[in-house]
Design brief:
The protein is mainly alpha-helical. The protein is about 60% helix and about 5% strand. The strands form two sheets. A two-stranded antiparallel ribbon has the order 1-2. Strands 3-4 form a two-stranded antiparallel sheet. Strand 1 and strand 2 form a beta hairpin. It holds the Pfam family DUF8201.
Length: about 550
């Protein structure tokens, strides 16, 4: 806890300094604290994304980021004093302290072990690696949020708790704007503070932008809102509905700002950087879609992409049905099966559908063009996501802004909003302090099984897991590490191939080869396995258990 508090007190001023420099460079003027901090995040992420093509985002880069942030603080003079004035609010301190406290618990989100840590390690040690998706397809995502996290994981945030900073920005925003009803989101956000999950920035920024568009006079800041929506898209393309909505709204009400030269140039920079990055690491425009428009030597395997699509389809129905069963259904059958899954996921799916339909009914009833536009974009997003992989976690970012608008339309006394929020936080703490409650009673909530026991160590630093048991192998010119008794890469030394990845390569008859075995920065490409290499992989796989074999 002490480490996180100190880290937070250093990171916030640095982000503010970067925000001031970014806004000056781009010709924007931000008066609110949250906007300057957000500008700092965007500035660092864009710079780090460019640097990562040529260098690693290790300790040297982090020192440069810190120094630039300090320069920005000097330039801004006493403007950061607003932060300290806000700290006089006891309620603000309470929510920040509770956020820090919950962040000290160990990570439990499955993707944290699956690719968050692995992605950040690659970025820190090598930067953006050409064809990194050929090591493990999931590494082809390379979210901009992980690039931002990698900029601080050597000194200021080695425990990968950067989401705590974002949570603090959210709380600061609510207290700046006095939007007490939105405090009710805090218990839910507490589930994402233990990992550098790109879901949290999508949830928070989506809410903030929609609130700004509906509850403020956004005309003067429309360019900033548009650019931030594009930036959010680069964090996770599933949030395409947000820039689409902002664009349609701007086309209707702010064409001059939307199509200004500066806006167009900055949009081209953000979008081009995103697509170039994706082509570099994945071999196509958007992970994990095979557009067949790009032909590079490091392009991913069609077989593995098709396998990924099948897994996404199975996850849509929580592995409760087989691929042949799913493919035999009509569209209506697919929707009904999705809404009647066994376990808690059907409840979440129902809530998503009811929220979208309910909001659409209200928007049409009020005959509000802005609300109808928002509903159309969110409905489109829901349909597209269901078509590719209808996992509820890919839909929540569209539902939360709707909930925010409903909450802001309800009149609640501030003390009541704060009281309900504290009660929700209390329940979250009970779950983390006594994880067996969730593990024994909600078996279908898989990630709950990964929650660890609390420890006194949390008073000084957050808990974390580490895997030190692994083997080293070499196939052709590629030396790699494989965890002995674990199926995910987590913090295994680079490069890491999980037993399942080896099994995939064996079945596909291909294997990643390094362009230069002495310099992994030069990247990887796939090559057909020679009989001797295939036999070697077969011998290696005999030492591991493959739980879900490819048929």
């Amino acid at each position: 806890m002490i480490y996180l508090l100190l880290s937070l007190l250093v990171l916030l001023p640095l982000l503010f300094g970067w925000g001031k420099l970014t806004s000056r460079l781009l010709g924007f003027t931000f008066t609110s604290l949250w906007a300057n901090l957000t500008a700092g995040i965007v500035g660092i992420t864009v710079v780090a994304s460019v640097v990562a093509f040529f260098f690693s985002l290790g300790i040297v880069f982090e020192i440069v980021v810190i120094l630039i942030g300090l320069i920005g603080l000097v330039v801004s003079k006493n403007n950061f004093s607003e932060f300290f004035s806000l700290l006089k609010n006891r309620w603000l301190l309470v929510f920040i302290f509770l956020g820090v406290s919950i962040t000290t618990f160990a990570p439990f989100i499955n993707d944290h072990f699956g690719y968050y840590v692995g992605t950040i390690k690659w970025l820190s040690e090598y930067g953006l690696v050409k064809g990194i998706a050929n090591i493990n397809l999931i590494l082809g995502q390379q979210s901009s949020w992980h690039i931002f996290q990698a900029s601080f994981d050597a000194i200021l945030d080695p425990f990968l708790r950067i989401n705590l900073v974002l949570y603090t920005i959210f709380v600061l925003y609510l207290f700046e704007k006095k939007l007490w009803n939105l405090l009710l989101f805090i218990p839910f956000f507490f589930l994402f503070l233990h990992s550098p999950s790109p879901d949290l920035p999508i949830y928070i920024f989506s809410i903030l932008l929609i609130v700004e568009l509906f509850k403020t006079d956004y005309a003067e800041n429309f360019s900033v809102i548009w650019l931030l929506s594009v930036f959010i898209f680069t964090l996770k393309p599933t949030v395409f509905w947000l820039p689409l909505f902002v664009f349609l709204l701007g086309f209707k009400t702010n064409k001059q700002l939307l199509f200004s030269i500066k806006n167009i140039l900055l949009t081209v920079v953000l979008v081009s950087l995103f697509f170039i990055k994706q082509i570099w690491v994945f071999g196509d425009f958007i992970f994990p879609i095979n557009s067949n428009l790009i032909d590079v030597s490091w392009k991913p395997s069609t077989f593995l992409l098709e396998l990924s699509n099948k897994i996404g389809l199975l996850k849509t129905y929580d592995y409760q049905y087989t691929i042949p069963e799913i493919n035999s259904w009509s569209t209506s059958d697919k929707i009904i099966k999705w809404l009647t899954l066994s376990g808690f996921k059907k409840i979440v799916n129902l809530v998503v559908v009811l929220a979208v339909f309910g909001f659409g009914f209200l928007a049409i009833k009020k005959r509000n063009t802005k609300l109808i536009l928002l509903w159309v974009c969110i409905t489109l997003k829901t349909i597209v996501i269901f078509y590719f992989s209808g996992q509820y976690r890919f839909m929540i970012d569209a539902v939360l802004p709707l909930v925010a608008l409903v909450l802001l339309s309800i009149t609640l006394k501030p003390i009541l909003s704060k009281g309900i929020t504290l009660a929700g936080i209390g329940l979250i703490f009970i779950v983390f302090l006594f994880p067996k409650i969730l593990q024994e009673n909600v078996s279908s909530f898989y990630v709950g099984q990964l929650m660890g026991k609390p420890s006194a160590e949390q008073l000084t630093k957050p808990l974390e897991y580490s895997i030190s048991d692994y083997n080293q192998h070499k196939v052709s010119n590629f030396t790699f590490h494989t965890p002995k008794n674990y199926h995910l890469m987590h913090d295994i030394p680079l490069p890491c191939l999980t037993p399942y990845s080896l099994h995939e390569f064996y079945v596909a008859g291909i294997f990643p080869y390094a362009y230069d075995e002495n310099d992994f920065k030069k990247g990887f490409y796939l090559k057909k396995l020679s009989p001797s290499d295939k036999k070697k992989i077969d011998e290696i796989l005999k030492n591991y258990v493959i739980y879900y074999k490819i048929e």
